[in-house]
C-alpha cells in the first residue's frame, strides 16, 4: 500500500499554524492552474488546426492548379486537389477533437474543485473553531496566572501583618486572601475546562487534517495521472493526424506513378492535331508572266491546296539596259 506522504510531512509544531495545510492548498491551486493552461493550449491549437484546415480546403477548391492538363497528369492533379481537400477536412476534424478534449479537462478540473471545496469548508470551520478556542484558553491561562499572583500577594500580606496590625485589619487581610483563593479556584477551573475543550478540538482537527491530506493527495494523484494521460493522448492525436496526412499524400504519389508521359503526349496529339502534311514550299511568282497568261473570263486561280509552277525569266535581272520577259521589254533608267 502506498504511503500517504501529505499527512506525514505537513505537520507544524505550532498548534494554530496552517503553514503545512496552506502549502498543500497552494500546490493544489497551482495544479488546477496548470490544467487550465493546458486546456487553453488545446483550445488555441484547435483554432490553429481549424484555420489551417479551412485554408487548405479553400485553396484546393478555389485556386487553379494545372487545370488545362490532359489525361493521366490531369487525373493525378485531380487526386492531388482531392487529397489536399481531405487533409484540410482532417485538420478541421482534429480541431473539433481538441476542443472536446479541452472540455473534458475543464470538466475534470471543475469536478475536483467542487469536491475540494467541501473538504476545505470543513477545514476552514475547524481552523476557525480551533483558533477561537486557543485564544480563549490563552486568556483563561492569563487570568489563572494573575489569580495565582493575587493569591500569593494576599498570603504574603497576611504573613507580613502578623503582630503589626489590629485585629480588624488582620480580618480584612484574611477576607481578601479568601477571596483571592476563591477567584483562583474559579480561574483554575475555567482554565482547565478550556484546556479540555482545546484538546478535544485539537484531536478533531488532527483527525480532519489527516483525512484532508489523504483526500488532497488522492486528488493530486488523479490530477497528475489525468494530466499525463491527456498529454499522451494529445500527442497520439497529432501522430494519427500525421499518419492520415501521409496516407493522403501517398494517394497523390500513387496517382503520379500512374501518370504516363507518352499517353499524355498522345492524348494531346489526338485531341489537338491539325494535319499530317507540312505546308508546301513558298516559290517565286513572276507578276508579268502571270498577267500575260491571264485570259479574260477564265479563272486561273490555282487549285486549292496546290501552287502553280511559276515561269522562269528569259533574262536575268542583272542586264544593265533591258530586261525581257516573253516579248516584253523594260528599259531600266539610271
From TrEMBL:
Xref: PROSITE patterns: F_BAR
Protein localization: Cytoplasm; Membrane
GO biological process: actin filament polymerization
UniProt keyword annotations, A-Z: Coiled coil, Cytoplasm, Membrane, Phosphoprotein
Role noted for this protein: Binds to F-actin. May be involved in regulation of the actin cytoskeleton.
GO molecular function: actin filament binding
Pfam families, per the entry: FCH
GO cellular component: actin filament; cytoplasm; plasma membrane
Keyword Cytoplasm attributed: yes
Main localization category: cytoplasm
Protein name according to UniProt: Proline-serine-threonine phosphatase-interacting protein 2
Region feature Disordered, mapped onto this chain: 294-315
Gene: PSTPIP2
Start and end residues of each F-BAR domain: 4-264
Membrane topology: Peripheral membrane protein
